[in-house]
TrEMBL record:
The lineage of its organism: Eukaryota, Fungi, Fungi incertae sedis, Mucoromycota, Mucoromycotina. It comes from the Eukaryota. InterPro entries: Kinase-like_dom_sf, Prot_kinase_dom, Protein_kinase_ATP_BS, Ser/Thr_kinase_AS, STE20/SPS1-PAK. Its EC number is 2.7.11.1. Keywords: ATP-binding, Kinase, Nucleotide-binding, Serine/threonine-protein kinase, Transferase. SMART domains: S_TKc. Signal peptide: none annotated. Belongs to the protein kinase superfamily. STE Ser/Thr protein kinase family. STE20 subfamily. One of its GO terms (cellular component) is cytoplasm. ATP binds at residue 98. Residues 68-318 form the Protein kinase domain. It catalyses: L-seryl-[protein] + ATP = O-phospho-L-seryl-[protein] + ADP + H(+); L-threonyl-[protein] + ATP = O-phospho-L-threonyl-[protein] + ADP + H(+). One of its GO terms (molecular function) is ATP binding. This is non-specific serine/threonine protein kinase.
Length: 342
């Protein structure tokens, strides 16, 4: 074949491939189709940040109503409302979902991220985060659904000392973990202590939590559970959680916190900041329980116990039969009697 005829065939082949808009490759036994570039998924900055912060938690960008059904409001947290729901594909599995607005305020977003990180820590005495869904200007935090709050029990009756000691121990485990991670809760009370179907006790609602290392002096929390140094807006640390736990223990046995009848906040501020530490009013605990609460409610933060010290002290008293203490099985039976419908 002459060079002229060969050139004509090549030109015709090129024209043919151009006609059908196909790339032309010289015929060869080693011809290879190039690999497709990796699929790039658009992801906003917050979603990217959440994936780095919560590597073990599922992060979704979708309409939650396509995944969940049977929404029913069950409470409110510091940063948003809490609802009960079920999975559409698993209608027997119930979860709790906290819905928060994604406010552009930097500190507000930092508080939400801190709350998510705490719940994702996996500690057995902290409410567990299952997944996060981003939808428009909302963030949906899917959590384990618990049986009830300790406050729900108090609406029916006061709590005997042995169950109070058990719940105090479980709460101290949660606080010891938080404090070891450099976090203070700032809103410990019966309403934020949740009980499971097998007697579990979990601390919830971390919307007011803060880093211990930063200078904290804001008057934040729920007034009747605030430590004197919070009322006075002095710089404070994790010891404020120990004061709040002391008030919570009184609340468990008395059914109400100290000064419950006082509604005026300024009057409450004055009482908490200036009067001696409160004690039990309507119940009759053992002298050792009174001593424990007096220790937790020490007016001087420096001599107030740490969560770890208080837990060790209670465990020693329980082992010596000086303090009665139930267990998870006893707690379940107690709840079945008090709240059989839950």
């Amino acid at each position: 074949m002459s060079n002229v005829s060969l050139k004509k065939e090549v030109v015709l082949l090129i024209k043919k491939t151009k006609k059908f808009n196909r790339p032309w490759y010289p015929p060869s036994p080693h011809c290879k189709i190039p690999d497709l570039p990796p699929l790039v998924r658009n992801e906003n900055k917050l979603e990217s940040k959440l994936r780095k912060l919560l590597p073990k938690v599922s992060i979704r960008s979708s309409d939650p109503s396509a995944r969940y059904a049977n929404f029913k409001e069950i409470g409110t947290g510091v940063n948003g409302a809490v609802v009960r729901a079920t999975y559409r594909r698993k209608p027997n599995v119930r979860v709790a979902i906290k819905r928060c607005k994604l406010d552009p305020d930097r500190e507000y977003r930092a508080a939400i991220l801190r709350e998510l990180k705490i719940m994702a820590s996996g500690h057995s005495n902290l409410i567990k985060l299952r997944e996060v869904t981003l939808c428009q200007d909302d963030i949906w935090m899917t959590m384990d659904l618990m049986r009830c709050s300790v406050f729900a029990v108090l609406c029916q009756r006061g709590i005997p000392e042995e169950y109070t000691v058990y719940m105090a121990c479980e709460t101290l485990k949660a606080l010891a973990h938080l404090h070891s991670q450099g976090i203070l809760h700032r809103d410990v009370k019966c309403e934020n202590l949740l009980l499971g179907w097998h007697g579990e006790v979990k601390l919830a609602d971390f919307g007011l939590s803060a880093r211990i290392s930063r200078p904290n002096h804001e008057r934040l929390g729920t007034t009747k559970w605030m430590a004197p140094e919070v009322i006075r807006e002095e710089y404070y640390n994790e010891k404020i959680d120990m004061w709040s736990l002391g008030i919570t223990v009184i609340e468990m046995m008395d059914r109400v916190p100290p000064h419950y009848a006082i509604k005026d906040e300024e009057e409450l501020f004055d009482i908490i900041a200036t009067e001696p530490s409160p004690t039990f009013t309507y119940s009759y605990p053992t002298m050792y329980m009174r001593g424990l609460v007096a220790w937790l409610l020490d007016e001087e933060p420096e001599t107030r116990p740490t969560a770890r010290d208080a837990l060790l002290e209670i465990e020693a008293h329980v082992q010596s039969n000086l303090l009665p203490c139930s267990n998870a099985q006893d707690m379940t039976r107690f709840l079945n009697q008090v709240l059989p419908e839950c």
